[in-house]
């Protein structure tokens, strides 16, 4: 069994005698790693938002739970932070589906501005919904004028919560928020509970994730605009970010193990190996290609992906071309961008992996596996895994896995961990040929899995890229630290020529035994997945300055 990572223990202690549905907790096997000493505020337990001090609470008392609805149909549990440190106030309660070990947090706050005006008690509560068993009641705090509620409140009785249960936050210390996918919903009465998060998320955005949730019902509709996420108003909102030595310590603690498929023909390599192995720079309108310098110093910078330049493998008449396609696992390393997110309360470590070639795709229709010719094959493939780390504690919160044009966040408690490697470092699986990242081995169909029609993403344990090994990572960007970026990172054009596929012709050729309607459906899916502007470097991806793009 994979081990869980080293982190703070999240526990939900039942109130009264009711049994807790979430019986499996995310239990750390060892202490949280220690970080190098620093004058900064990283992993100090609290963060100053400019006069509003917040702390991360990971222990809870259960208020109500259900074993129906929610993810996988196993219900959800609703808790309140407990205990709340003296002098601090809760801002809302916590919700989590029952299909995973309990692991989460909410923020509590205290006013350190000297004005005493940043927090205020609700003037009243509005009942949103009561559970059929009468044991769960969901309330909307009514904020005083000039303040915003940050999250919903749950009680075990129909009595209104105390005004001291939570505090509302002055509006200028809040930001717009939106909901993530619902933790629990009911079609019968329109009840829905969903975690709140900042609506704008990026390097420069100030919205802070408080860990609270929204509740609504048909009788009491509530929108995300009713609530506010917290806002970091500190003049130096990156003051709680890790310094470079701490970033390297985080990578030593959490850098992922990436398993390649046993039949993977196209392995990763270092960028330097790719350049030194004969990569060529092409310019539009020129018949002569230029060898790329080992450090990429002769690559044009800026200009966007305007099609004026692109990289390619060594010339077709060069025997080395086929060798370069295969990559070079011994030379492979990962390139890391460290950036503030969620108002500087978390650090995102985007771990980028380069492959000289992305292999051709395969489709599945029912029980048939259909190779798609050269569709999906392109030079220069960049994939990434993003580690989201709490700046309160240094614990790993969740991991983003890139999957073609989008990807998925996976909670740290739901990942695999490899025994014998400190137990902190998560496992990711790169799919065969396409190199999309997944948290588990097996087959993932990209398309309509109900009809058994989709692009195959096959994952299994073959060769392993140990991104935490000696000299396996390089921090290439951290704007808040002034890290000098390598020359090649500024190359904004294509890392391979744009591929043009005659999708209809290929589908009619390789899948001619299928009915016409099925071929047309498959062609539309292939066009949606594989038609684009060609591969570009990390800096040209939307997540370079913004939050990760999630698959819908």
UniProtKB/TrEMBL annotation:
- Note one Pfam family from the annotation: Vps62
Indicate what this protein is called per its UniProt record: Vacuolar protein sorting-associated protein 62
């Amino acid at each position: 069994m994979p081990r869980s990572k080293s982190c703070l223990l999240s526990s939900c202690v039942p109130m009264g005698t009711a049994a807790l549905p979430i019986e499996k907790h995310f239990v750390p096997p060892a202490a949280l790693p220690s970080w190098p000493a620093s004058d900064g505020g990283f992993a100090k337990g609290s963060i100053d938002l400019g006069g509003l001090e917040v702390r991360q609470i990971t222990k809870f008392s259960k208020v109500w739970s259900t074993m129906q609805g929610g993810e996988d149909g196993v219900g959800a549990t609703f808790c309140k932070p407990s205990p709340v440190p003296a002098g601090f106030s809760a801002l809302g309660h916590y919700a989590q589906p029952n299909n995973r070990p309990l692991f989460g947090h909410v923020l509590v706050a205290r006013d350190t501005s000297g004005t005493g005006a940043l927090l205020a008690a609700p003037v009243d509560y509005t009942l949103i919904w009561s559970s059929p068993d009468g044991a769960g009641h969901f309330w909307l705090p009514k904020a005083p004028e000039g303040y915003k509620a940050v999250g919903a409140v749950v009680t075990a009785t129909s009595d209104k919560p105390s005004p001291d249960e939570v505090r509302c936050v002055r509006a200028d210390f809040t930001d717009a928020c939106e909901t993530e996918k619902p933790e629990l919903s009911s079609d019968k009465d329109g009840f829905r509970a969903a975690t709140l998060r900042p609506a704008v998320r990026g390097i420069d955005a100030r919205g802070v994730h408080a860990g609270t949730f929204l509740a609504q019902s048909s009788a009491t509709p509530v929108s995300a605009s009713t609530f506010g996420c917290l806002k970091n108003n500190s003049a130096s909102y990156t003051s709680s970010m890790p310094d470079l030595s701490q970033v390297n310590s985080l990578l030593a603690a959490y850098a992922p193990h990436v398993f390649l498929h046993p039949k993977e023909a196209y392995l990763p390599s270092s960028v330097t190996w790719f350049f030194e192995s004969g990569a060529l720079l092409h310019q539009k309108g020129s018949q002569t290609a230029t060898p790329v310098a080992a450090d990429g110093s002769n690559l044009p910078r800026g200009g966007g992906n305007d099609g004026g330049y692109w990289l390619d493998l060594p010339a077709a008449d060069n025997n080395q071309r086929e060798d370069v396609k295969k990559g070079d696992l011994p030379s492979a390393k990962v390139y890391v961008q460290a950036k503030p997110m969620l108002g500087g309360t978390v650090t995102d470590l985007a771990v980028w992996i380069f492959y000289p070639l992305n292999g051709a795709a395969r489709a599945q229709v029912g029980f048939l596996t259909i190779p798609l010719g050269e569709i999906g094959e392109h030079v220069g493939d960049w994939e990434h895994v993003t580690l989201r780390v709490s700046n309160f504690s240094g614990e790993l919160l969740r991991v983003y896995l890139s999957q073609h044009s989008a990807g998925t966040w996976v909670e740290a408690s739901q990942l695999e961990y490899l025994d014998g490697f400190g137990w902190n470092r998560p496992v990711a699986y790169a799919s065969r040929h396409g190199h999309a990242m997944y948290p588990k081995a097996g087959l993932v169909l990209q398309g309509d899995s109900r009809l058994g029609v989709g692009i195959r993403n096959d994952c299994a344990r073959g060769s392993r890229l140990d991104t935490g090994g000696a000299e396996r990572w390089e921090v290439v960007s951290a704007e808040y630290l002034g890290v000098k970026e390598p020359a090649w990172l500024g190359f904004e054009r294509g890392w391979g020529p744009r591929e043009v596929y005659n999708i209809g012709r290929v589908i009619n050729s390789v899948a001619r035994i299928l009915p016409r309607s099925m071929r047309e459906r498959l062609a539309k899916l292939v066009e949606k997945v594989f038609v684009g502007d060609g591969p570009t470097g990390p800096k040209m991806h939307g997540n370079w300055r913004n939050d990760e793009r999630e698959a819908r």
